[in-house]
């Protein structure tokens, strides 16, 4: 991916939205919930309205991390758990681009857990779509960070003994300014939430319950339907304490909807403020004179 080539393209908003942002044909298992997430992201981007050369999809490793191959936008398929670091650097270098991260619960919360924490607290202006199937699917069915206690997998044949991570709880307590949860069986809600996340100025996290019908047959579409609880119409997403209580008391239920949203300065804005202050005090740097100090 070479985002610098986008500098010759028309300015933001100067071109009509594409009729589809999808790229090559997906290669997931038949019935995978990720197909629904892909369709919803495509619809959300159409409503968002930016041309494809102003959108970048960054992923890590895993079934869901193959998203860049299936999108007709710029894309970067990074290393395991490192999508958010790549996306952070890209957004700081090119704040004019819309940067979307995609990944699974293992990629985000196991090997990528450290980067997940710091990206949330920094309030990077990104949209992170996590496809949560509660299993390691690409490596053929091992216990993942979100797997329930007692779940029998190839790596836990006598039952998982570790308590699961709640991705929304992790994002909320680590500092994300937009936290939502949805499921692939409700495409209308998922599309609307992803669109809100794209428009949010700051770290927007959307946890998508996306069944793995091959290696986690118990948690299929009907399971998530039965265990999902749409937020009430009068839910106030600005109430941080209420969001904390909601997730703390959720148990084996999945609150569905916009859980929390607030507006705070982003990492990019804070960096820009410092840069502008230094330039005002010292003027533009003489790159050649600085380089001579090291020659």
Could you explain how this protein is built, in words?
- By secondary structure, the protein is of the alpha/beta class.
- The chain has one domain (17-292): Thiamin diphosphate (ThDP)-binding fold, Pyr/PP domains (Rossmann fold), CATH 3.40.50.
- It is built from ten helices and eight strands.
- The protein has helices spanning 34-48, 83-93, 105-109, 113-122, 167-174, 187-199, 221-227, 240-248, 267-282, 287-292; strands at residues 55-59, 74-77, 98-104, 127-132, 178-183, 204-209, 228-230, 254-261.
- It has an eight-stranded mixed β-sheet with strand order 2-1-3-4-6-5-8-7, with helices on both faces.
- Helix 8 (240-248) links the parallel strand 7 and strand 8.
- Helix 1 (34-48) packs across helix 6 and helix 5 runs antiparallel to helix 8.
- The longest helix has 16 residues, at 267-282.
- The radius of gyration is 20 Å and the shape is globular.
- The relative contact order is 0.13.
């Amino acid at each position: 991916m070479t985002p610098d080539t986008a500098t010759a393209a028309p300015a933001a908003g100067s071109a009509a939205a594409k009729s589809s942002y999808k790229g090559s044909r997906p290669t997931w298992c038949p019935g995978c919930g990720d197909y629904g997430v892909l369709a919803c992201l495509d619809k959300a981007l159409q409503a968002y309205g930016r041309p494809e050369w102003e959108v970048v999809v960054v992923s890590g490793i895993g079934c869901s991390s193959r998203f860049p191959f299936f999108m007709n936008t710029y894309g970067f398929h990074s290393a395991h758990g490192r999508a958010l670091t790549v996306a952070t650097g890209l957004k700081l270098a090119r704040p004019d681009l819309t940067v979307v991260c995609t990944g699974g619960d293992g990629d985000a919360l196991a090997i990528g857990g450290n980067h997940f924490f710091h990206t949330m607290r920094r309030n990077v202006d990104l949209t992170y779509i996590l496809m949560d199937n509660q299993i390691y699917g690409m490596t053929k069915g091992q216990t993942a960070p979100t797997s329930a206690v007692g779940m029998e997998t190839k790596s836990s044949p006598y039952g998982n003994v570790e308590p699961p991570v709640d991705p929304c709880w992790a994002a909320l307590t680590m500092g994300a300014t937009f936290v939502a949860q949805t499921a692939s069986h409700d495409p209308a809600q998922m599309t609307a939430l992803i669109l809100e996340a794209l428009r949010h100025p700051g770290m927007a996290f959307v946890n998508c319950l996306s069944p793995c019908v091959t290696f986690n047959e118990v948690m299929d579409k009907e399971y998530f339907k039965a265990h999902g609880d749409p937020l009430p119409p009068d839910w106030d997403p600005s109430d941080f304490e209420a969001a904390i209580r909601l997730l703390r008391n959720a148990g084996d239920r999945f609150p569905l909807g916009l859980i929390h949203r607030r507006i705070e300065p982003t990492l990019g804005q804070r960096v820009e403020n410092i840069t502008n202050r230094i330039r005002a005090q010292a003027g533009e740097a003489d790159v050649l004179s600085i380089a001579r100090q090291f020659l």
